[in-house]
Amino acid sequence: MRRRELLLASGAALTLTGCATPAALPELRGTGDLGVVIERARGTLAIVDTSERRVIAEVTGLGDLSHASVVFSRDARFAYVFGRDGGLTKVDLLARRITARIVQAGNSIGGAISADGALVAAQNYQPGGVKVFDARTLALVADLPAEAVGGKPSRVVGLVDLPGRRFAWSLLDADAIWIADLSEPSSPRVTKLEGIGRMPYDALVTPDGRHYIAGLFGEDGLALVDLWQERPAARRILAGYGRGQEPLPVYKMPHLRGWAVAGRRAYLPAIGRHEVLVVDTETWAEVGRIPVAGQPVFVMARPDGRQVWVNFAVPDYDRVQVIDTPTQRIVTTLTPGKAVLHLEFTPRGETVWISSRDDNRVSVIDTQSFATVATLNVDSPSGIFFTARATRMGL
Amino acid sequence: MRRRELLLASGAALTLTGCATPAALPELRGTGDLGVVIERARGTLAIVDTSERRVIAEVTGLGDLSHASVVFSRDARFAYVFGRDGGLTKVDLLARRITARIVQAGNSIGGAISADGALVAAQNYQPGGVKVFDARTLALVADLPAEAVGGKPSRVVGLVDLPGRRFAWSLLDADAIWIADLSEPSSPRVTKLEGIGRMPYDALVTPDGRHYIAGLFGEDGLALVDLWQERPAARRILAGYGRGQEPLPVYKMPHLRGWAVAGRRAYLPAIGRHEVLVVDTETWAEVGRIPVAGQPVFVMARPDGRQVWVNFAVPDYDRVQVIDTPTQRIVTTLTPGKAVLHLEFTPRGETVWISSRDDNRVSVIDTQSFATVATLNVDSPSGIFFTARATRMGL
């Protein structure tokens, strides 16, 4: 490769006299310990180093990040950021700049990347449906409008990747779950499950890619699909899940993507109640409830499943609680800062990173001692995403 | 950083006239899709790109790699290679060169890296014991001789990392399992479990870091330690595991590190028999046996647990079989080449890479269609290791 090509390829500035400006040369470094933090108020991404525990760069110009999520390329170099405004932005974590950006919808709440890293899919509220893009160029390769209800396409939620260039998602307005095989992106094969329950509002796939579970806003309970069955079908589980006989005010809907599976048990945020539900993943029956400090939002297992960490909706959103899974007891309550919006474990679980929006702070906490080992100044931080997600299904 | 420092730091050659030689500048790239293949006959490491499915570089001078294993730094940039001759070599996958190399023992068969990436540990046959090194410099930070038996330290096997800067290993000649906490490397705290069974020869830790299991060469059965207990103790499980009442010739001891956990079941290579054993990971009782084409060596689950892949000892080592876990049946038998020594899944399982030593070939196989999607020319390939291991426990 000639010098000019090399420098252009690496995204560096090139001076006319022939030598590169050192300051503009991106740092040669591994990408396994990188991550991003959403700075929700100003459309900016903070790039973080989880080894040195610091912000190494900021990338601006990502639009409305008031509800944003991120997936990573399989080489862990690029972040794909899905913004609330329908923006899809590809950010080079090494060159620390945007390499592609499109506004692909009017209102969007997330996306996924295929197991082989070739396809990025976005789920849209307005217009409804799913759009699929070439992960290199962000060129549109497949458009999958949702079933129309009352003349307009259903909003789409709960989009996840599955093994083998497949995706699954839920149709909020059409009470349906669709499973799409995009082995041939120009001719997607879509399996449609109808009547799965009223108003699916979010969903997840279990870490093994086997069970797709959608929460229902229109009724108590959840819809479960065993994707390993030859003819997948949805069945209702946990009829007691939801607001129940005595509906409580719900300050914030829990995020299902954060559900924790530890060993044979799953830990779920109850809706409205100050409880974490414990579910047996073989029978999908409830086997316990753990009282917690507020309405849970994210319920997340440390990668080894020994602990489950919980944050809460207003007014209890300054607290984080830790459940010891063998004893099912709360072992500590932390107050890392005001308005805890998200938490993310380093891939082997030695630390957890917690964003406190109203204190403009990300806290790095040792998961054994519960000591705060670092704090980072980040403007209105919300979601935290580490590149190890590239190696996991359904994240 | 000044220009000179930058170039030196990146490992590039520097010309006296001031401009770097372009060909010597390492490529700026992500490291999430890198891996290495051991070229066992000539002490060489092939660096591979799992996106492009090709060899991108070779690094020579690693000594005797006839039985080698590899762990990765948490930034996925450096490979630590443990050679049979006691060599420990740190290789920069970006600069494509050795950055540090020591010969730390006379005979060694593997190692581990702490969850925080700070410590690299090597297990030694000669002299026995475990040595722990600073992951940056390979400086010795802790020396843990094994218990002496008959005047010399026991050989050490089955070394694994555990959550929280801890390691566990087995003492082949002392019938013991040791668990060491190296939070303070200068004063390791060691818990010693004695009389765990005769001649532990290899071990593994389950993917959640909870159960440490050692195979016993001196008797049927295995030793199991629940590391989540306050006072861990070893108990014997699977009394039927082993050569049994009618001992069979064993052509190659199975590698326990390769054991597969899929859902609630573990799949184990029987010793000597043409069978894969199925074990319930809650009761640790045998719940089934699957007849296979030879004496199994590696029994490995695709990351989603839907399939288990098996290779074999001589004379059946040209074959690889695939078990469908829901039905417990062999769904295909492949013959990727002569002398299949190892297999490694890409982190999300869309392909598996298989080394065929005597055909000097690595085959990349689509795990859904079983089609060979690429072949790589590699000299006498044995172990294959991808950087995603940096994000997993016990690998």
Lay out the secondary structure.
The structure is a homodimer of 395-residue chains.
Chain A: H1 3-9, E1 34-39, E2 44-49, E3 54-59, E4 69-72, E5 78-82, E6 87-92, E7 97-103, E8 107-113, E9 119-126, E10 129-134, E11 140-144, E12 148-149, E13 152-153, E14 156-162, E15 166-171, E16 176-181, E17 189-193, E18 200-205, E19 211-216, E20 222-226, E21 234-237, E22 260-262, E23 265-269, E24 275-280, E25 286-291, E26 296-301, E27 307-312, E28 320-324, E29 329-334, E30 340-345, E31 351-356, E32 361-366, E33 372-377, E34 381-386
Question: Strand sequence of the main sheet of chain A, in spatial order?
Answer: 3-2-1-34
Integer-rounded radius of gyration of chain A: 21 Å
Question: What oligomerization state is this entry in?
Answer: homodimer
Please estimate the helix content of chain A.
Answer: under 10%
Low-confidence stretches of chain A: 1-23
Query: What is the end-to-end distance of chain A?
Result: 36 Å
How many helical stretches of chain A?
1
Write down the overall mean pLDDT of chain A: 89
Structural class of chain A: mainly beta
Biggest pleated-sheet summary of chain A: 4 strands, antiparallel
List descriptors.
homodimer, 1 helix, disordered N terminus, 395 residues, 48% strand, mainly beta
Structure in words:
Two copies of one chain form a homodimer. Chain A is mostly beta strands. Chain A is built from one helix and 34 strands. Chain A has a four-stranded antiparallel beta sheet, with no helix packed on it. The first copy, chain A, has a four-stranded antiparallel beta sheet with strand order 4-5-6-7, with no helix packed on it. The N terminus of chain A is likely disordered. Chains A and B meet through helix 1 of A and helix 1 of B.
